[in-house]
Amino acid sequence: MKHRIVVLGAGYAGAYAAGTLARRLSPADAEITVVNAEPDFVQRLRLHQLAAGQEIEAPKLTDVFAGTEVRLRLARVTTVDPERQVVTLADADGGGELDYDTLLYALGSHGADHGVPGVAEHAFDVAARPSALRLRERLDSLCKGDEGGRVLVVGDGLTGIETATEIAESRPGLSVTLVARGELGAALSAGARGHLRQVCDRLGVTVLEHTSVEVVEATRVLCADGAALASDATVWTAGFAVSPIATAAGLEVTENGRIVVDRTMRSVSHPNVYAAGDSVYVIGDSGRSLPMSCASAGYTGMQATAAIVGRLTGCKIPNIKLEYHGNHISLGRRDGILQMVDGEAQATPKFMGGRKAARIKAAIVRMSLWTTSHPTFGLPKRKHHLAAVPDVSAEKAAA
Ligand SMILES: Cc1cc2nc3c(=O)[nH]c(=O)nc-3n(C[C@H](O)[C@H](O)[C@H](O)COP(=O)(O)OP(=O)(O)OC[C@H]3O[C@@H](n4cnc5c(N)ncnc54)[C@H](O)[C@@H]3O)c2cc1C
Question: Domain spanning 119-236 has what CATH number?
Fold first, then answer.
């Protein structure tokens, strides 16, 4: 019987990993199935652009995996049962179960509301395509009508900064306010912060610092200091959270639900489960955990596939670097910031701001799309046959 590998999620980590596995393992021995809720590859890095009204490419996953022998299952994963080695799926036909021998969990993340009342009911976000499209519709109606046009972006992390500047540039008729809990761009170097302020001024983005939003209502938000800020569209960008599926499955997770793995991306509690991308908690080469990011999705996806192939074929498992060098932030289409960070993930004084930074960011985004939508390009064509498949239950017992 073939070894059944199931990859959950076809985002930056999962799509690349599924293609890589298909290229490396002989289809005579291994059957690779990727499960994804959406039929397209979603460029999450560009969802703020989609919300602002721009068109972004969304390659069909059937095209991405064409010729790779990867089986694509369009369905929503609802549960994972690692004891029975079964994944439960929901789709238009009622779903069903999928058995696996090896699981690669790469379900990414979604916007975190941090329990703030009203976020789920009244706020928009750019963490997923459907929600970005809902925001875009709202911005369209604000631009058409005369009901106002006050957009409040809550959260001045990288996503909030990118979203506020993108909307301000694409829709100059709207008034955009960026609400920051502390000082604007606190995680950036002094130089980068100064550049960010200049760009916000140029684009007409009002910055409200040291402001904590405690309640979101339909037409306003209420702040900790008692202030009420009127808003026609509140965009919540105050961080990301992961799906509760891994926790419910009984996998060892951190307190916020990210799967704890070893250096090879293998679950520390369930040896035939691997994880990659935003879902995984892993200590990088600097000794700190890798942040949720596209670069981390790439490195963790590569390491997970290298480990799966190595363990199944008896080949040596290489150590893929697990590093994080910096933040690439777009500020609309004509400006940006590249902020270098040190081994402690702290901003160094080294940064680049301006048009060149915007071009580099755009090139990185294009490259991420290209490598993900051509997941087998450039890999060795040699297909490995499986060695005697290790008995993971025996390994688990020994551990
Ligand atoms: C607006 C925005 C801008 C960003 N900008 C940057 C940036 O500039 N640089 C950077 O490094 N990072 C950025 N990020 C973060 C980056 O997008 C993520 O870190 C990255 O997408 C993680 O990759 P992933 O493969 O783990 O998850 P994803 O890319 O989210 O892929 C997860 C996949 O799983 C699918 N899925 C989820 N749940 C289920 C389910 N239950 N059943 C079936 N399928 C499911 C999803 O449809 C998706 O296809 C940005 C994020 C956003 C939202």
Answer: 3.50.50.60
